[in-house]
Structures are given as C-alpha cells and as structure tokens.
C-alpha cells in the first residue's frame, strides 16, 4: 500500500482539503479521505486532479501536424485534408509508426491525459497487403502504451468501403480495408493477446456509416462481448449528412438509432451536425458524444450544440483525434470558446454559479472514462484506477487563486506547463513536467521524422 497526501484535490467534481490517497499494489484506489492528517504518506506540493481520458486518437496523424496547411481552393475542406493523409501513409512502416505513437503518448501524459482510446485503422502494408503477423500494427500501439505508461483502450477499426451503399474503396484506403470476417478475427486475436496486459482494454469501432454496411455493424454487435466499448465516427461533416440522406432518407444519427440499440457503451465521435430530436435520442440512450474541438476547428467541421446537449443531461468527453496539438486544457478551452463565439455569450456550458473549469473538467472525465472502460467508475473513488495529475501551484496561471479557481486558471489561462506530475495506475510517469523516458523517445522520433521529411 502506497499513500499520497495533497493539500487540495479535486474529488468527484468538488475540491477537498488535506486529502489522503491510499493505492493498492494493483494500482487501484483503496481509500480516499479528506480532512486527514498526512501521517507517513508521500506529501505532494500542488493541486491534484483526476487524469483526463482522451477518448479519440489516430496516433500516426501526430506526424502529419502542419502538413495540411498549404492554402487550397476556396472550398478546401476535410476531404482535401484526407488526400494529404493518404499520401503521407505511403511512407509509414511499423517502426516509424511506433516511434510516432511513443512520442504522441508521451505528449499526452505531459498534457494531463492518462488514458487514450486509439481508433486504429492502419492495419496493412503500403498497397494493402496484410503483414505476415496481422496484428503487427496493433502490437505497435500496445507497445507504445506500455513504453510510455498510458492507459490504452485499443479500438481496431472496421473499414470496408469508400462511401454509403458499399462503394468500392479507393487506392488510398488500401491499408485500412478488412471484411467483417477478417475484422472479427482481428478483434478475437487482440482480446487474447491483451488478456495479461495491465491497463489495456479492447473495444470495437465501425469506422463510420460510409465505410461499413448495415449488415456488418449488426454482425459485429451480435458477435462481440456485451461489455466492450463501441466507437464510431458520425455526422462530422455536412457532406456526410447529405450523402447519408441521399442514400437512406435519414440523417446519420437518426439512421443509426433506428438500426441498433444505443446505450452507454457507445461513443458517437463528433456528432457535429445533429437535430434537436437526435440530441434527445443520444442523451436518452446514455451514449457519449466524443468531442474533438481542436481537430474539429482545424478541419472546419462545425460546432456540436453542447449546451443544448447538456440541457438534456447528455454525456460527453474529449479526444485529440488528428493530434494536431496535444493539450487537455486547450481541448476544453476550444470547446467553451466555440460556444461563446457562436452564441455571443460567456460561460455557457457550466451550471449557473459553478466554476466553468470545474464543470468542464468533471464532465469530460466522466464521459471519457465511461466509454473507454465501460462499467468502471469515474474520477477518484475507491475501486477506480489511480490515475491523477498534480498541477504546479507556482505557475503564473494558478498563483493567488482559490481552489475553486484552479481549473479555471489552467483551462483558460494556462497550458501544458501547468502539469507537474502524472501518475497512471499509481505509478509516476511524469516528474517535474518531464516524462521518465523522454530523452530516448524524443531522440527516436527525431530520427524518424527527419527520414520521413526526405521522402515527402
């Protein structure tokens, strides 16, 4: 048993003082007591908050950051960015991919993310031929999580088509493509391979309605375990919505809700363009909306009506998606600022009278944990994994603030430098802002990126 003591800790959405945290050998919280003496516990200076779940990531895209910013035609959209991605993937092998994932997951930890949902669709070799070990690229994701210490929910992606109505895949999509039988064999093999790996969970992820079929989605749901998380891209772009209506006569969320039983295992990633009726459908089902504000802004997707969704008691979390910029604070800041710009009002998402930062942070932690590890409790409480972050009390964004203003200071006036220490399953992975394997990870990433730059 290891004990930690904090002057102030954010516990179950509220600030507590003189908090004693006891952690079992398996990395779960055995006890958490406020207004306690420190005793023989390890004493920490700073403000402790739960680790933030990152519910949606494409690891390889971290190496693409900045490559899609060459000005294009006036109607430049997500779809032109996607062509940049296909070209980039012509040069990415397993070793390069793992070096990028190592760097990314290290950056996530330094930004206060302690777990990640890796929406993984880079399965095959350039040209589409499978690797001799069909789990090759999935093994690299797991290896990166183990090396860095981040908690992992690996979401192998079913991707079969290029558009609604089972359209033939394009040449640029060859590395993603599996039929449903190949996909289910992949999921089964990953379940077996990950059983003894602490901190690794396996879920399923139909890529989107445009890249899968009705029959495939139903087959997957009939076969996989009833406790597995289910993630899907949906209604991200208006073109997708228009194409879905032309194909089915229904909007994407509407169609999905009429085909499957949405519940708390489902993460609807983006869900940017939804109607009032669809908002109510998602909230009533208990599904979580996966918001990726920095990526959605970068790609010009639009703004999810989060305050309407919150009024319906809907659950949401945040993800870094294309990994253009890794910052849990900035994801939340961008989410809030988008609503302020849209409605020309301030502090729109939080309940009246409550710290906006407290409300945003707590909601994102709860929603993210739910769809990365279904059935697990969220936040800091007995029985949960001991994932927590310590914020610098001497950072300019936090100096002079009351505990109830700390998360406001970090989210709206701070950056990743506010993060001092990070623990995952009770083990320290970031100390004084530095990852425990930072030098070797950065050196390898630099070599890979230098080599890739000569090929692009």
How would you characterize the overall build of this protein?
The protein is an alpha/beta fold. The protein has two domains: 2-50 and 382-439, Urease, subunit C, domain 1 (Roll); 52-372, TIM Barrel (Alpha-Beta Barrel), CATH 3.20.20.140. Helix content is 37%, strand content 21%. It contains 14 helices and 17 strands. Helix 2 crosses helix 14 (438-455). It is globular, with a radius of gyration of 21 Å.
Main sheet, how many strands, which sense, barrel?
Answer: 8 strands, mixed
What is the terminal separation in angstroms? 51 Å
Structural class: alpha/beta
Q: What is the second-level CATH architecture of the largest domain?
A: Alpha-Beta Barrel
Coarse shape: globular
What would the CATH topology of the largest domain be?
TIM Barrel
Spatial strand order of the main sheet: 3-2-1-4-14-15-16-17
The proportion of residues in beta strands is: 15-25%
Radius of gyration equals: 21 Å
Number of domains: 2
Helix content: 25-40%
Poorly predicted regions are: none
Tell how many strands the DSSP assignment holds.
17
Number of helices: 14
- What name goes with the CATH superfamily of the largest domain? Metal-dependent hydrolases
Descriptive key words:
single chain; 456 residues; alpha/beta; Urease, subunit C, domain 1; TIM Barrel; five-stranded parallel sheet; 14 helices; 17 strands; 37% helix; 21% strand; globular
């Amino acid at each position: 048993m290891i004990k930690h003591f904090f002057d102030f800790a954010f516990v179950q959405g509220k600030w507590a003082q003189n908090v004693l945290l006891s952690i079992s050998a398996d990395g779960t919280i055995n006890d958490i007591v406020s207004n306690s003496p420190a005793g023989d516990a390890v004493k920490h200076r700073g403000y402790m908050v739960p680790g933030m779940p990152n519910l949606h990531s494409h690891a390889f895209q971290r190496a693409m950051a900045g490559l899609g910013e060459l000005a294009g035609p006036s109607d430049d959209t997500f779809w032109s960015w996607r062509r940049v991605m296909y070209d980039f993937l012509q040069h990415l092998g397993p070793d390069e991919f793992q070096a990028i994932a190592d760097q990314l997951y290290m950056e996530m930890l330094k930004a206060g993310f302690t777990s990640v949902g890796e929406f993984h669709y880079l399965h095959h070799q350039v040209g589409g031929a499978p690797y001799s070990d069909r789990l090759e690229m999935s093994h690299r994701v797991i290896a990166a999580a183990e090396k860095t210490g981040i908690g992992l929910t690996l979401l192998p992606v079913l991707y079969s088509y290029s558009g609604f109505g089972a359209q033939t895949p394009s040449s640029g999509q060859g590395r993603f493509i599996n039929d449903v039988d190949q996909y289910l064999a992949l999921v089964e093999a990953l379940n077996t391979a990950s059983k003894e790996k602490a901190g690794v969970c396996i879920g399923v992820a139909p890529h989107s309605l445009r890249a899968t079929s009705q029959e495939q989605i139903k087959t997957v749901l009939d076969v996989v375990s009833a406790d597995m998380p289910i993630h899907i891209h949906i209604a991200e772009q208006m073109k997708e919505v228009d194409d879905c209506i032309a194909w089915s006569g229904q909007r994407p969320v509407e169609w999905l809700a009429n085909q499957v039983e949405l519940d708390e295992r489902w993460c609807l990633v983006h869900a940017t363009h939804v109607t009032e009726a669809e908002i109510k459908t998602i909230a009533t089902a208990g599904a979580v909306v996966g918001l990726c504000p920095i990526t959605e802004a970068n790609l010009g997707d639009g703004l999810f009506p989060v305050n309407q969704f919150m009024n319906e008691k809907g659950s949401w979390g945040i993800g870094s998606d294309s990994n253009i910029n890794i910052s849990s604070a900035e994801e939340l800041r961008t989410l809030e600022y988008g609503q302020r710009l849209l409605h020309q009002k301030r502090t729109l998402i939080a309940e009246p009278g409550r710290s906006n930062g407290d409300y945003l942070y707590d909601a994102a932690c709860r929603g993210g944990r739910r769809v990365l590890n279904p059935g697990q409790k969220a936040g800091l409480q007995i029985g949960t994994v001991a994932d927590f972050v310590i914020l610098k009390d001497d950072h300019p964004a936090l100096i002079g603030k009351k505990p109830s203003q700390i998360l406001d200071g970090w989210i709206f006036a701070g950056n990743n430098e506010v993060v001092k220490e990070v623990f995952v399953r009770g083990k320290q992975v970031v100390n004084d802002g530095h990852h425990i394997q930072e030098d070797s990870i950065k050196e390898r990433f630099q070599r890979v990126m230098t080599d890739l730059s000569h090929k692009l």
